[in-house]
Every structure is written in C-alpha cells, then in structure tokens.
Amino acid sequence: MKGIYWKLLPILILVYVMIQGFLGEVPQREILHETIRNLYFHVPMWFTMTAMFTVSVVYSIVHLSTQNAKHDYYAVEFANIGILFGALGLTTGMIWAKFTWGAWWSFDPKQNGAAVTLLIYLAYMILRNSIDDNKNRGRVSAVYNVFAFSAMVPLIFIMPRLVDSLHPGAEGNPAFSGYDLDGNMRLVFYPAVVGWILLGIWMTDLRFRMRVIKDKIYESRF
C-alpha cells in the first residue's frame, strides 16, 4: 500500500482515541469504574488480531493455488502482527482482570481460548522456521495456517459463549452493547477499532517490504 495519506489516518484516529480514552467522560459502572476505559484498548486488540489472522489465512489459501512467494510473505507477516496484537490483548485483559475480578488469571473460558490460540499460532512460526526449503515451507505453513484459523474461531468466538464466563456476552453476563457501551463511548470505541486495524495493516506492510528486501539481498549474493 503506497502513499502517505492512509498512514496519517491511523495516527490521527489513535491520537484521538488516546486523548478520549484517558480524559474523556465514561459511564460509572459498579466494579468497573475507571477501568472501563480499557475497553478502548483491550477489545480493539482482539478485533485487530482477528482481522490480521483472517487476512493471513486468505493469503495462505491464495498461496496454495498460486504458489506465489509474495502471498506467503503476506500470510506470515499478517500472522506475525496478529500474534503481537493477541499478546497485547491478553496483557491488557490480565491487567483489567486484576482490577475487576481480583486476579491476573481466572481461567475464564475466553482467557483460556485466547491463550491456546496464541500458542497455536506460535507453533505456526516454529513450523515455518523448521523448514529450509522455501516452496515446502510455503505449502506446509499455508495448510497449518488454515488449521490454526479453524481452531481460533471456536476457541474464541463459540466455546466461551456456550459456558458461564466472566466476560460480557456469555451466559448470564450482559454484553457491553447493552450494559456499558453508551453513546459517548461508541464515538471512541469504533474509531479505536478502525485505528488499531489500520495500524496493524501498516506494520504488516512494513514487515512485508523488509522481507522482500532481505530476499533480494540474499539472491544478489548467490
């Protein structure tokens, strides 16, 4: 993605989110209190992770049919950034859990599902690094990426909703849309989701270009 204008957009959005996130008015809710501000950071991390992993698996599927190395590069870099945002989502969630649930880790179904998902994608990176041949690496990792994405969906979006959970939206626990996310918060929350996703795309684009440059340098030596 070329041009500077689309890159200014996530900067402007996230500056707005940071200012509103720390200084803007938020509803006072029992237990949550000021920690509700973490909604602007914790939840968009998961949206961004999901978006990155979704684009990654699409590129992997395309790579299986085209065998184009660039598709494989995009797949792995979107997965890399997805892992980063997943780790940030897990970290911000643990901080939030400490102040609202009383413990860093409560073995909540969504916490467990997120942790397992990250481990699956970390295994994807280990698998890639264990294969020397570029063509085999691309094919094998693409197949594994499809498996990883297929595992992520039930681990994060289906199974936690079938059992009791401390997270909003599960059985007996109201979702943010009906409990905490008032009109003023929506004006910050939805731009935050867009801003973090655009930042993830920007970071992926930079890593992709770096990978292509490294390949060209390697090829020029042999």
Structure description:
With 222 residues, this protein is mostly helical. The chain has 7 helices and no strands. 76% of the residues lie in helices and 0% in strands. The model has no long low-confidence stretch (mean pLDDT 86). The longest helix has 39 residues, at 183-221. It has one domain.
Radius of gyration: 19 Å
- Number of H- or I-type helical stretches: 7
Q: How many beta-strand elements?
A: 0
Q: Specify the helix fraction band.
A: over 70%
Low-confidence stretches: none
Helical/strand content category:
mainly alpha
What does the average pLDDT come to? 86
User: What overall form do the CA principal axes indicate?
Assistant: globular
Approximately what portion of the residues adopt beta-strand conformation?
under 5%
Largest sheet: none
Query: What is the domain total for the residues?
Result: 1
Termini, distance in Å?
Answer: 30 Å
Q: What's the SSE pattern?
A: HHHHHHH
Which helices and strands, and how do they pair?
Layout: H1 5-23, H2 42-66, H3 69-100, H4 109-129, H5 134-162, H6 176-179, H7 183-221
Short descriptors:
mainly alpha, 0% strand, 222 residues, 7 helices, 76% helix
